[in-house]
């Protein structure tokens, strides 16, 4: 029946799928977005690996906004005809993560060759980026393990099992057992985050706009991300 | 309810191969050396043993032949096996009540019937014991009551008094006889005791290695022993028993 | 035979047994000693944690009930099947055990998703899509937990032996009476073990749920998903994942201790 | 009592049983029908896939053996313990079932890592560090699989009853002889179920291995890790994840069918 | 090996409370109505039943008292229980070999001994049958052979001939007697049959509700029946049995 109030009559609540690494940033973004747009209700935000989220969307998940941690998963969705034109809204660069006391005295990429180093596996995005960075800098590293995601790399370092690992800048931000070193050439290997809306929910568009807005970019920066604009420039 | 039996069941070394009838309301005793096929025959009639050939018929209904096998619970035949298989998770009372319920009584009636049976057996003291906490003879009596409580059309009892002392065995024989007469049930009693055959049965059938070697009215079979085994059994009947006197005064 | 005179365990079995307990318990102790106690209580009592816990309990119980309803008949059927068929069924049933749960989730999506015939059929019938709903959580949990129930119940049904069932049948008891009053009570220890394994596996389930049901707080975000999210989400981190894990563990242990059926000894 | 006259299953148990089989098997069929057959063979026969498969098999078998060696004594001990102690042990043992494997992996890292007392002790003794080694894979698999073995074996030990053991003891048989010649053979169906569950869980293990042992091809990258890695890689990743899963499944089924012990019927 | 027994075991309704001895090399028969405590006593001596008070001593070694309980396998006492508990996963031959091995023989010797026992029992035909495929009497004989093969210092046999036909029972009595004499083993035979007591035992002990009501040399106890039960048992001895004649000619 049509007994709904005039405020929410227009706009359906929106659901968001976002890459796991965006969680803390999106938590704050959604809070401020809701304050600014009381007419748009966010019914849920699912955080998970980008490929999981992409698979779900392809198999019928009712999602209004999709924020991916890489472009390949995004293009799988858009090529299947689900999303609109995506926009790059954030970027992330690699850092060397070392245990807080840095037992192997790492301070540059060159040191990784001698230490117990863990990297992401070549197949996953952070792994291919790591390889490229090492190649760019001409460093040969035989990793002790090729972890299948960033979290596994980070935990190995945090537990002191590995002397160093390559992860994204945002990953180490609140990990108190880990210190980070920005390696040379990191700014040249940039991972970009695309976002898109699916379907025609105007709330979704409003959310996406907010993420790309100045305030949205500011929040992302506070959480360690580079901005989409930078990427566009670089 | 006349039971007509003709069956063959292959066993190691020989086949059990017999043919006999149990007329309505009568009781047949079955004897024979250990391993001669007595249990095999009652298992086949009860439906927990398939037959390779022959036909088992109860008042015209085919219970089994080489092709069909009516499941045990649809045969109206009750069996107290040589191993009584009291249900280990139920106490004595519940075991009997299970029989009554399986025989068609409702829950309350089955419970009452079980209590009555326990009283008749004089086993009130151990009514709530589980089988593991019953003596051998108590187990056997509870199992007998359970089989009787199920009120089958044909009752098969395989060595039902083997673990009982003289007095209890006499009491139980009397009880079975009374029940069979009261309900007009036909029965087959497998036993090693000539006294059981005399007390309970009209006819006697003696087996050896799966074959019937003697058959007829009980006294007649004992009176004209067909072989050494029948003679030895008949000899256990008191006042006719030369060996026991030897043993008594060695 | 009095139970207080049971044959005791050989002394030298005690060392490996303790090693076994150690392998299971010591990692937990390590986890507990490294937990950051300052934030633990806050993490474990946050509204999101409690809502995830409540969802986990509800779906875990629902999945266990579903598994019992489907799994016990299946176990009975297998225990009574000819050896070859039983063997085949066992092999089929072990499959979801081997499948990495995430792939199981993909398989469930393929089966029930909007592109599948079944998904479209359900949609046309009741106008619902299964994936990404609480029902999907229950299905995912049942999918991974059912094999545990079936295999352990079947094992103990086979051990129970047919003598008592035959005795019951010769008394005139029909199949249903034999099944419910004799067979299942005799298999009770295996049933209890199966239910424990099943419940524990269901509420610990993560991979299949993540894919098939998604990770929406209050609807499909169970504890393991909340833990995973905390763990993988940058920033929030491992401490709160550990806190949530301890909360889940404590709850599971309490549930299992409270459930009366939890004592297979009841039958002895 | 001839086995060919066993009491049959009530007819109406068949519907739920089939539903149960369907829940387990249909998702797999969906997976198979959606597999991209063009690349499947290539994906499944790549050197990396085969090396991961071989590692999975070796570590899975090793973990199963370890679980049997530790778990059977533990199950025997539990089955013979007073009800209260057994209950407590059962609660402890169920814990790793509930724990999301990835948290279990962190716990193992804390326990055996090179910063922990045990890790340092092992290092000083043999000069080795466990993480990143194949041994770590076996430990992680054992950690998650052991509870399945213990709980199903304990269930069937309790069902086996003490009468035969007492009879053996009164003949003069010592504890070891009773255990190996009477108790365990009688509990064989539960043992078989337990070993199946244990092996299947071990070779399906992913989360704990990923964190504790890492993902080094040939050393610690088991099939599930290879599958996850493929899945998390974008593009054709999912297809090759499915291909690898089917390879793992087929192998597991073959192993289980080949293992002679796989037939609990052997005891009947 | 003199066995000295004084024990109390509480049961529903009464306590089993007895004191008796079995002198070295002698055999004691134990009789009594079903549920009177016979099995309880032999279980306590074998060590599968704890005693609440008293002391069981074998040639000076305390097997059990209120505080200690020596486990069964360290007692040198062998038991063939009323339920023979043949191991279901082993065939007849292996069951006997298990007994021989538990009694101390090595693997090969145990196997040979088992084969010899099977031959003595004349059960070669079913040597490789598992218990489920044995007849009741075959089971009982295999279990008896298993107990004898274990060569205990004291042999306890609880109703060892209950499922046997007349001839097999006589054979088995002779076999047991021969073995006991050959090895000088003391024994306790629980039985409901006066013939067993006469054939095997030196002394007889009669129980009722856990108490000894008659004790002495076998013939003497039967000659002066202490109560109705003993009289009824004695009456089963042939040539003294008025009831059987009644039954034979009704
Ligand atoms: N399930 C079976 N499979 C094969 N042979 C069997 C089976 N059960 C019994 N037998 C064999 O069949 C023969 C007949 O056994 P049955 O149990 O009918 O004898 P019985 O006359 O009842 O003997 P008893 O008086 O000792 O109980 C025996 O030799 C026995 O070993
Ligand atoms: N485990 C038990 N716990 C409690 N009571 C028991 C237990 N086992 C037997 N009883 C009871 O103790 C009494 C004596 O039993 P016992 O088995 O010693 O009798 P029995 O003389 O061997 O009789 P039978 O000749 O029938 O075998 C019986 O009343 C029985 O119910
Ligand atoms: Mg028989
Ligand atoms: Mg007794």
From TrEMBL, chains B, E:
InterPro entries: AAA+_ATPase, ABC_SmlMolc_Importer, ABC_transporter-like_ATP-bd, ABC_transporter-like_CS, P-loop_NTPase. Residues 1-234 form the ABC transporter domain. Keywords: ATP-binding, Nucleotide-binding, Transport. This is ABC transporter domain-containing protein. It comes from Glutamicibacter nicotianae (Arthrobacter nicotianae). PANTHER family: SPERMIDINE/PUTRESCINE IMPORT ATP-BINDING PROTEIN POTA, SPERMIDINE_PUTRESCINE IMPORT ATP-BINDING PROTEIN POTA.
UniProtKB/TrEMBL annotation, chains C, D:
The chain crosses the membrane at residues 12-32, 52-79, 91-113, 125-151, 182-203, 241-262. Signal peptide: none annotated. InterPro entries: MetI-like, MetI-like_sf, ModB_ABC, NifC_ABC_porter. Residues 53-259 form the ABC transmembrane type-1 domain. It is a multi-pass membrane protein. It comes from the Bacteria. The keyword Plastid does not apply. It is found in: Cell membrane. Its main location: membrane. Keywords: Cell membrane, Membrane, Molybdenum, Transmembrane, Transmembrane helix, Transport. Belongs to the binding-protein-dependent transport system permease family. CysTW subfamily. Part of the binding-protein-dependent transport system for molybdenum; probably responsible for the translocation of the substrate across the membrane. This is Molybdenum transport system permease. It comes from Glutamicibacter nicotianae.
């Amino acid at each position: 029946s049509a007994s709904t109030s005039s405020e929410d009559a227009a706009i359906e609540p929106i659901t968001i799928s976002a890459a796991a690494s965006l969680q803390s940033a999106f938590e704050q973004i959604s809070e401020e977005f809701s304050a600014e747009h009381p007419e748009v209700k966010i019914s849920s935000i699912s955080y998970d690996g980008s490929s999981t989220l992409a698979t779900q969307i392809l198999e019928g998940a009712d999602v209004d906004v999709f924020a991916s941690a890489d472009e390949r998963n995004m293009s799988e969705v858009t090529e299947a005809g689900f999303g609109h034109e995506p926009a790059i809204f954030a970027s992330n660069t690699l850092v060397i993560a070392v245990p807080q006391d840095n037992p192997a005295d790492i301070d540059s990429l060159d040191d990784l060759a001698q230490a117990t180093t863990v990297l992401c596996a070549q197949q996953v995005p952070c792994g291919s980026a790591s390889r490229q960075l090492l190649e760019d800098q001409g460093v040969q590293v035989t990793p002790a393990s090729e972890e299948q995601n960033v979290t596994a790399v980070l935990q190995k370092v945090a537990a002191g099992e590995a002397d160093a690992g390559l992860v994204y800048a945002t990953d180490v931000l609140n990990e108190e057992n880990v210190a980070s070193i920005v390696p040379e050439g990191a700014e040249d290997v940039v991972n970009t985050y695309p976002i898109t809306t699916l379907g025609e929910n105007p709330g979704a568009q409003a959310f996406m706009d907010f993420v790309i807005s100045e305030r949205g970019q500011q929040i992302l920066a506070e959480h360690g991300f580079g901005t989409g604009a930078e990427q566009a420039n670089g | 309810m006349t039971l007509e039996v003709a069956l063959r069941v292959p066993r190691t070394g020989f086949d059990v191969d017999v043919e006999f009838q149990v007329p309505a309301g009568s009781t047949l005793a079955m004897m024979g050396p250990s391993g001669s096929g007595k249990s095999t025959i009652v298992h086949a009639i009860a439906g927990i043993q398939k037959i390779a050939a022959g036909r088992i018929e109860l008042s015209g209904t085919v219970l089994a032949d080489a092709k069909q096998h009516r499941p045990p619970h649809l045969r109206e035949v009750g069996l107290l096996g040589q191993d009584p298989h009291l249900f280990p998770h139920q106490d004595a009372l519940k075991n009997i009540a299970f029989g009554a319920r399986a025989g068609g009584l409702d829950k309350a009636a089955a419970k009452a019937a079980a209590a009555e049976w326990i009283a008749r057996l004089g086993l009130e003291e151990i009514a709530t014991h589980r089988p593991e906490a019953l003596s051998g003879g108590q187990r056997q009596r509870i199992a007998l009551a359970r089989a009787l409580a199920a009120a089958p059309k044909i009752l098969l009892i395989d060595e039902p008094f083997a673990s009982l002392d003289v007095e209890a065995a006499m009491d139980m024989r009397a009880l079975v006889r009374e029940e069979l007469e009261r309900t007009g049930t036909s029965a087959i009693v497998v036993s090693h005791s000539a006294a059981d055959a005399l007390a309970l049965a009209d006819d006697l059938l003696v087996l050896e290695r799966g074959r019937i070697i003697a058959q007829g009215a009980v006294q007649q079979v004992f009176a004209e022993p067909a072989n050494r085994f029948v003679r030895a059994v008949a000899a256990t009947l008191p006042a006719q028993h030369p060996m026991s006197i030897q043993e008594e005064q060695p | 035979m009095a139970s207080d005179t049971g044959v005791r365990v050989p002394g030298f079995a005690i060392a490996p047994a303790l090693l076994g307990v150690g392998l299971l318990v010591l990692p937990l102790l390590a986890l507990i000693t490294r937990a950051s106690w300052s934030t633990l209580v806050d993490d474990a009592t946050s509204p999101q944690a409690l809502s995830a816990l409540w969802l986990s309990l509800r779906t875990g119980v629902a999945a266990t009930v579903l598994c019992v309803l489907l799994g016990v008949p299946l176990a009975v059927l297998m225990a009574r099947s000819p050896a070859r068929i039983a063997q085949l069924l066992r092999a089929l049933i072990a499959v979801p055990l081997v499948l990495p749960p995430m792939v199981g989730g993909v398989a469930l999506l393929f089966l029930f998703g909007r592109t599948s015939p079944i998904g479209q059929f359900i949609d046309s019938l009741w106008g619902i899509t299964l994936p990404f709903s609480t029902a999907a959580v229950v299905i995912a949990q049942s999918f991974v937990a059912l094999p545990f129930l079936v295999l352990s119940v079947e094992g103990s049904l086979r051990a129970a032996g047919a003598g008592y069932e035959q005795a019951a049948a010769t008394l005139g008891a029909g199949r249903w009476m034999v099944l419910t009053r004799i067979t299942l009570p005799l298999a009770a220890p295996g049933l209890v073990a199966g239910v424990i394994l099943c419940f524990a596996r269901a509420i610990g389930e993560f991979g299949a749920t993540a894919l098939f049901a998604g990770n929406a707080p209050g609807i499909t975000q169970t504890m393991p998903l909340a833990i995973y999210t905390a763990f993988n989400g940058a920033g929030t981190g491992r401490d709160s994942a550990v806190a949530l894990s301890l909360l889940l563990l404590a709850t599971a242990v309490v549930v299992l201790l409270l459930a009366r059926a939890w004592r297979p000894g009841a039958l002895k």
